Amino acid sequence: MNRRKLTALFIVLLTPFFLYPEEIRKETRIFAVKDQQELKMDIYSSCTSSVSAQPCLLFVFGGGFKEGTRDAALYTDYFRYFADKGFQVVSIDYRLGMKGQKAPGIFNNKPLQHAIALAVEDVYSATNYLLQHAGELNIDTSRIIISGSSAGAMTVLQADYEKRDHRETTRVLPDGFQYAGVIAFAGSVFSKEGTPSYDTAPAPTLFFHGSKDKLVPYNKTRFFKLGVFGSKSLAKRFKEQGYPYTFYTMEGIGHDVSEYPMTEFLPEIEQFIRNFVFDKKQWMLEIYLKDKFRKSDTSTDPGSYYK
Q: Which end of the chain is less congested by CB atoms within 10 angstroms, N or C?
């Protein structure tokens, strides 16, 4: 075999070691049983992870509170990327309160309120489990970041909002505990008090939202003080109060922003975590991104989704 062929063979044999991350380990545990339903979490970590405490990225899946799974294939890149970066990545179940319900609206909001409350309660239960087992799971409890897609994004934004306001629902968690960061892919907060105000400054938050999203409002839908407040209105409140945040507006894009940043914006998400959560930079950053080549379905709304 000549030198050129030998070199080519050597490159082919070594390519997998350079292109693919270290093997990722997955462990499944039951963290709670509610309404006769076992709620499970999948814990992803690198086989080469340090034995010292690691940051934790807790994820809540999307699906309108009526469907979806914690281990859907579309989240795989997100889980593997951060597990390979040394995070303990935890994807959880939660109870789906909108199953069989009609489309929510400003005058038909009780089913949605109930669904959000169930999901937030389950996020708190999962968080409490992680806090109680932090030692064996090598989790740094001061660096637990919550993230979610669509309904999951609504849930994590709501969870941080209620924790910062010391609501009754948060008593399952230690008084001194707060989430270190929030990452929301097309999320919102349900409020009866107008645009959410925080008794304690919220966690640094990364918002992604499409300006043409009709399923989860980009701005807000309200009737007097009651309403659903999307990323634009929340980012405006953060800016007014000087809370650190990054807000990506995907101009002309619909609800698909709830998914594709988890494959196409992984380095940007990691940089947010390092700048805002680890280095505690007090930045307020807004990015308006127009992708002329991306096609988006902007027609999906509650009426068409909840059939």
A: C
Work out the number of other CB atoms within 10 angstroms of the CB of residue 282: 9
Please give the mean pLDDT across all residues of the chain.
Answer: 92
**Distances, alpha carbon 168 to alpha carbons 19, 131, 132, 191, in Å:** 48, 19, 20, 15
* Beta carbons within 8 Å of 146's beta carbon, 6+ residues apart: 58, 59, 60, 123, 127, 156, 159, 160, 179, 181, 182, 183
Cα–Cα distance, 302 to 20 (Å, whole number): 40
At 16, the pLDDT band (50, 70, 90 cuts) reads: very low
Task: Give the containing element (helix H, strand E) for 77.
Answer: helix 76-84
Alpha-carbon span 171 to 163, nearest angstrom: 9
Cα 256 to the chain's mean position, in Å? 14
Among 277, 218, 212, which Cα is nearest to 247's?
218
* Tokens 């390092």, residue located: 274
Name the 3-class secondary structure at 73: helix
**How does residue 49 score in pLDDT terms, banded at 50, 70 and 90?**
low
Token readout for 113 is 């309120």
Q: In this structure, are residues 181 and 157 in contact, taking their beta carbons and an 8 Å threshold?
A: no
Q: What residue type is assigned to position 11 of the chain?
A: I
pLDDT computed for residue 17 by the predictor:
37
Name residue, tokens 């997100």: 78
Residues in the chain: 307
What are the tokens at 249? 């507006």
SS3 content of the chain, % helix, strand, coil (to 5): 35, 25, 35
